[in-house]
Amino acid sequence: MNIINTPSSIFIPWAIVKGFLDDVTVKKIQFFKTNVPTSIFEFTNKEQVEEKFGGTAKNITNYW
Questions:
Q1: Domain, as residue range, for 6
Q2: What are the residue ranges of helices labelled H in the chain?
Q3: 43 part of a folded domain
Q4: How are beta strands 30-31 and 2-3 bridged, if at all?
Q5: What domain count does the chain have?
Q6: Over the stretch 39-54, which tens digit does the pLDDT of each residue have?
Q7: Beta carbons of 44 and 53 less than 8 angstroms apart
Q8: Fewest C-beta atoms under 10 Å: which of 17, 37, 49, 55?
Q9: Pairwise CA distance, residues 7 & 51, whole Å
């Protein structure tokens, strides 16, 4: 799971929660403070990520 634009307030609860999780699971969850994380493309194709996040997929404007 890649979480983009993570607020700083999430890191204290995350430090508590990850203590209860397996190390393999913790490694699968990544937090990014930036809007365009470059390391996200190690595991994700650019076609699956919206343009506003550095990918090539169209930006979603209508969510419902």
A1: 2-53
A2: 11-17, 23-27
A3: yes
A4: parallel
A5: 1
A6: 788 878 999 988 988 8
A7: no
A8: 17
A9: 21
